[in-house]
Amino acid sequence: MSGSIDAVLIAGDITNFGPDELTYELLDLLEPLGCPVLAIPGNCDQRSILATLDASKAVNLDGAVHTIENVTFAGIGGSNPTPFDTPFERSEDEIGAMLEDLLIRADRGGGTIVLLSHAPPKNTLDRIPGGNAGSDALARAIGKVDLIVCGHIHEDQGEMTGQGTEIVNVGQASQGKSAIITIDEGIEVQFNNI
Known about the structure:
six-stranded mixed sheet; 19% helix; single chain; Purple Acid Phosphatase, chain A, domain 2; alpha/beta; 4 helices
C-alpha cells in the first residue's frame, strides 16, 4: 500500500460498554486522517453497534470483505464465549462459519489477505492469568491469510508469526497502545505506546 496512512483498522471494544453513539466521537477524531476506517465490534460493544457502524462513515467490516489497492480485508467482530457473558459473544461454530465464508470471498480478490478479528486465534497472543483465551475457530485462519490483526486480550500486545501468517495484537487504544502496520514486500509492525 502506498501513502502515509492508507487505512485505519479498529479491532473492537469501541464503546467499552458505553452507548453506541460513542462510535461517532471516535470516528470524528479519525476524520482528519482522510483515509478509510475499517471497524468491527468487540465483545464489550452492544450488538446494536452494527447498525451504528452501518450508519457511520466507517466501513462495517463485520462479516464483510473490503479491498483497498491489492489488500483484501475481512472482518469478524465480537469474541468467542467468555466467562463474563459480555454483550457481543459468538459461538465457536458461528465464528468458524463466518471465517469459512470470508476466506472464500477474500480469496477472489487476490493479493494480500488481512483478517481483522476482535479475538485472537487460540494459543497466539491470547494469554491471560488463567491460560489462553483465544478462539479455536480463528486458529484455523493461520496459514490461510497473510495477516491477522486483533485486540480483545488487552494485556497481550505483540506480534508473532505462525505458518506464514503474521499475527498482531494491537493492544488497548484507550491506554495509548496502537500499531502501524506496513504491507509492502512483506509485513512490518511498529508498536506505538504513548
